[in-house]
Structures are given as C-alpha cells and as structure tokens.
C-alpha cells in the first residue's frame, strides 16, 4: 500500500517512526503528521473494494479514502 509523504508515495512497509506522512487529520484535506509508532499486524476480516476509471482500491472498514469530483 502506498503512503503519501511530502516527498511522494512510499510503500507502507518502509514507513518508520519519526517520518512525516500526509493523513486526513480528521477532515478532508491532507495534513502532515509525524509517525509516532509503527505497529505491524495482519488484518483478518472484510475489505471494501472501489473501482473508478479502471483503478481498484481495497481497504479495511473505517479507513478514510480521499476522493474528489472533477
């Protein structure tokens, strides 16, 4: 899964504590934040699937997804 940083997209597995990433901040505009802790786990459960313009996105319930209307 790619994670947005000020330098561009990076694989989620390469994110480390102290790194700046862009997140929701509870709203709809991406905001920078510092990673405090990295916790590795394996999710077991339902995933949602969204397809738009030939791109497929899968995620866990409750995961915020940014979207914009052209």
Polypeptide structure, described:
The structure is a single chain. The protein has strands at about 1-5, 10, 20-25, 30-35, 50, 55-60. The chain is about 0% helix and about 35% strand. It is mainly beta. It is globular and about 35 Å long. The chain has no helices and six strands. A hairpin with a 7-residue loop joins strand 3 and strand 4.
Short description:
Helices cover 0% and strands 37% of the residues.
List key phrases describing it.
70 residues, mainly beta, single chain, 37% strand
Structural class: mainly beta
Helix content: under 10%
What's the order of the H and E elements? EEEEEE
Task: Give me the count of strands.
Answer: 6
Strand content: 35-45%
Low-confidence sequence ranges: none
Amino- and carboxy-terminal Cα gap: 24 Å
What's the overall average pLDDT, rounded?
87
Number of helices: 0
- Radius of gyration, in angstroms, nearest whole number: 13 Å
The geometry reads as globular
Largest sheet: 2 strands, antiparallel
Strand order of the largest sheet: 1-2
Q: What's the helix and strand layout?
A:
Layout: E1 2-5, E2 8-11, E3 20-23, E4 31-34, E5 48-52, E6 55-59
Antiparallel strand pairs: 1-2, 3-4, 5-6
């Amino acid at each position: 899964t790619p994670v947005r940083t000020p330098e561009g997209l990076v694989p989620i597995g390469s994110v480390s504590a102290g790194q700046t990433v862009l997140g929701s901040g509870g709203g709809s505009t991406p905001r920078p934040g510092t990673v405090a802790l990295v916790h590795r786990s394996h999710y077991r459960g339902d995933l949602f699937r969204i397809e738009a313009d030939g791109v497929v996105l899968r995620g866990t319930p409750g995961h915020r997804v940014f979207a914009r209307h052209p």
